[in-house]
Amino acid sequence: MYVLYVCGGKELQIVEELRFKNITAYCPRQIKAERRRGNWQYVERIIFTGYVFIDVPELTAKLWHDVMKCAGAVRFVSLCALPPDEDGYIRKLCNDGNCVGVSRGYISCGTLHITSGFLTNLDHEIVKFNRRGKRASADVTLYGEKHRIVLSVEFDAPPVNA
User: Fold this and answer.
1) Cα 38 to Cα 12, 34, 35, 80, 135, distances in angstroms
2) Top-level CATH class of 2-156?
3) 37-76 as b/e: b if 16+ CB within 10 A
């Protein structure tokens, strides 16, 4: 999998254009809880704004030219594929083109314990959480560079034995 840097707001348009050219591309999205006028609403948001992930075994010259012809494509972050450990969780975030749902968890002794959802894979990478805002932040890496992602979490009451 390769990472393409794109103009903000063009991510989904570029993914569709690449799919039209028979190139598998993803723009990881999530269902996010947002509070508007006192009510919680669930909306779809892009996780990595400005990035598109291209799922090909090898970056050839023809593929590079096909991708760079897309309006809004800026450059490849690297001409090397993502390392295997990073590739694994990025594929999970891509979720075969579907949105990542809201995770569930509870707080016990000041620690967030994830019981279901995508954050179960990143439980050890959670750096902070906001119970009131229904959010948890985790650090992930792309080509060794840390990026902080914020995902939605529904907080449950802790189990009796916790």
Assistant:
1) 30, 10, 6, 46, 17
2) alpha beta
3) eeeeeeeeebbbeebbbbbeeebeeebeebbeebeebeeb
Sheet containing 111-116: order of strands: 111-116, 103-108, 145-156, 135-142, 126-130
What would the two tokens of residue 57 be?
Answer: 């075994």
Kindly state the greatest CA–CA separation across the chain. 59
Confidence of residue 21 (pLDDT cuts 50, 70, 90): very high
pTM: 0.86
| Band (91; pLDDT cuts 50, 70, 90) | confident
Q: What three-state secondary structure class fits 68?
A: helix
Measure the N-to-C terminal CA separation of the chain; round to a whole number of Å: 40
